[in-house]
Amino acid sequence: MNNIKRVYTFGNGKAEGRADMRNELGGKGANLAEMNLIGVPVPPGFTITTDVCNEYYKIGKDQVVALLKEDVEKSLHQTEQLMNSKFGDVANPLLLSVRSGARASMPGMMDTILNLGLNDEVVEGLSKKTGNPRFAYDAYRRFVQMYGDVVLGMHPVNKDDVDPFEAIIDDVKKTKGVQLDNELEVDDLKELVKRFKVAIVEQTGKEFPTDPMEQLWGAICAVFDSWMNERAILYRKMEGIPAEWGTAVTVMAMVFGNMGNTSATGVCFSRDAATGEDLFNGEWLVNAQGEDVVAGIRTPQQITLEGSRRWAELQGISEEKRKAEYPSMEEAMPEIYHQLDAIQTKLEEHYHDMQDMEFTVQEGKLWFLQTRNGKRTGAAMVKIAMDLLRQGMIDEKTAIERCEPQKLDELLHPVFSKEALAKAKELTRGLPASPGAACGQIVFFADDAAKWHEDGHKVVMVRIETSPEDLAGMAVAEGILTARGGMTSHAAVVARGMGKCCVSGAGAINVDYKARTVEIDGVVLHEGDYISLNGTNGRVYQGEIKTQAAELSGDFAALMDLCAKYTRLQVRTNADTPHDAEVARKFGAVGIGLCRTEHMFFDNEKIVAMREMILAEDVEGRKKALAKLLPYQKEDFKGIFRAMDGYPVNVRLLDPPLHEFVPHDTKGQEEMAKAMGVTVEYIRQRVDSLCEHNPMLGHRGCRLGNTYPEITQMQTRAILSAAIDLKREGLDPHPEIMVPLTGILYEFEAQEKVIRDEAAALFKEEGMEIPFKVGTMIEIPRAALTADKIASRAEYFSFGTNDLTQMTFGYSRDDIASFLPVYLDKKILKVDPFQVLDKNGVGQLMEMGVDNGRMVRPDLKCGICGEHGGEPSSVKFCHKVGLNYVSCSPFRVPIARLAAAQAAVEE
User: Fold this and answer.
1) 338 is catalytic
2) Could you say which of 413, 453, 490, 879 is catalytic?
3) 23-77: per-residue pLDDT in tens?
4) Full-prediction pTM beyond 0.85?
5) Is 352 known to be catalytic?
């Protein structure tokens, strides 16, 4: 075990790692190494690999420390030499930062510690060395605060309690009569350190360590511990990041943004992460440390002049006041700004992607602490990919691969209707941190948000500022509103990553957690009151505002055209109404892969006729009721064929058990008895006789059509006569008739004969024929296993993976929720098999079905119409096994199209 390389150093233009070692060094470690190699100024340090994180959880803390000890001490010595200072030395101290960094970006989910290496003696040495006692003691109080929180576990006891450290700071500021942290003097900071240490012992029973090496090991282990904290686990679950990836730990020499007015700290983006605009932007604070910017404790200033002017306009601040009180870095530190601008350009050109960067200016010298491909909204993702393509920085295939299929969903989210906005009451404005429209009931705490959401409420989280602890609430909220924090605060970055609407830094709101109220310019809103947010322009409105469908950008259309150029796998839609078919067609669907006829029967007049048919005593009674249904069905099909003119429409014959259509309540049974002229008792007996112990495996699908062939006859006539009418109008319908739930060839043959006999009779009556296909759903494992036999008659297969998953696993779709969370937690299942296709089991059946079916019928068209048809990894699997198309709900069509294109370019 000892000959494994666990620690990689970087500094002074040299590095043992590089950008393509993300798996070993995490994103942060790999990019710090790469920045060194391309000449970007980075403080020296070393990275402990992600594999060590897995060892930490396997063999324990003490053994891992023993394994690392020699390498860490050797790497620390190299950092000391490069910084010309010594860790723990009183006269010439080196301070360190300890940071997490997984291979996938997890902003704010794990822990960081700054200013490590200080104690009562070293802080005096730092004060003398720098000649700046205020800076030294500010660094010390920050270190004690962070170490006490992260390593020693000093947190608020209750959710509505103030952070215990912040409570002490507020008390000292109140005594002093000042508002801001940076107005505290040296003696105040010394008092804070003293009180912090006392509070840590009182609350945690642990002494603050004075030995710098003990501090370092405590911090390294705390970062590994944070990989398994609640918020990191939740974030990984949301983003699909495996636990076995682990986090790396990066230890770097500290550089200080809080050494006075020639020092600063900031976060910047090479393009706008919310809109995708090709505009360098970011936020900075003079005389501050990095956490001040991202935590949203002080509202930062803009880096560029253009950004500063836009910010001032949103805040209603005059140009004179902006220039005097909130100058941009471009104005206040022009030389540093130009260096920063040059490096951000260099990094974007090097990585060929939008960069999210952190930097510190220490007494006039610029240092970069991090770069990574920036989190972005769905709209920004599409715009950045297409802009980079047009600018010649990436090729077409890379543009397709740059876009995450699931994030396209954000572009399709509703926006506020203009009419409703005109009548809405605007309460205040903040920063447009993450675009979109959100409306919901106010909640103040993450656990309440989760509970309200579970109970069916739409919620908006309102916070003074968010922290990583709020992730569970942010995940279920419609939107997030914060009083503090800028465009790079935790709330903004996480909301953009999730595609959530967010308004941050709305300074006019006063949140009272204990009273559970928020006051905005005299208007007091309580928990449960409705509020609406516009994350695109930062406006906050009282009450609920009506939404409408979003308009899609030219970049979206260009991306879809690009997908069409490379895609082999077609995308159809699951649609039962003309409206759904039209929506899907606008998104690029090339037909209907599943039209469920049962959804058409639930209108008032139709349901009565349907119930008459089901409750009829004999064939004649059923035929009489079906004759009433025929014109309704025909009109429904005409609407759908018209909407999909020129494209195939695959209509599934009646599938659900009949008991789903009959009235189970007394009132409904009385109405049916009256309509049919029979007794209520007769209706009740017929309803009872239809009940089954296991209806999903009972009298449904082709079993219905084979026992009641008159149903199949009526539906065939409705489908084909609708197509004939449209053909006469000059349209081009392409009907496909699908037999559901086939398990045996003979079941299919019996239904096919009914369909073809009825079609022949109809064509004779009409004096006109129309081409049509008859196929089947493959949703029973036996059908997949005997696909060669079924393909001897069926002209196409459509894999119904909802039922196929249910029958392959033996899991009831309706009851899986009772054990699925436990299975996911225990890693018995990695994902919900009803959401992500089970490639090893269900997928194997599909592959067999396709291969065996095409052995008999080489031109056999195969598709999928289960919910998996819109899930990206499932779509890619369908491409791999040679399906002709996938079919999904209308709003998932663009997602499936992008995934299908990615499958083609990844080959």
Assistant:
1) no
2) 490
3) 999 999 999 999 999 999 999 999 999 999 999 999 999 999 999 999 999 999 9
4) no
5) no
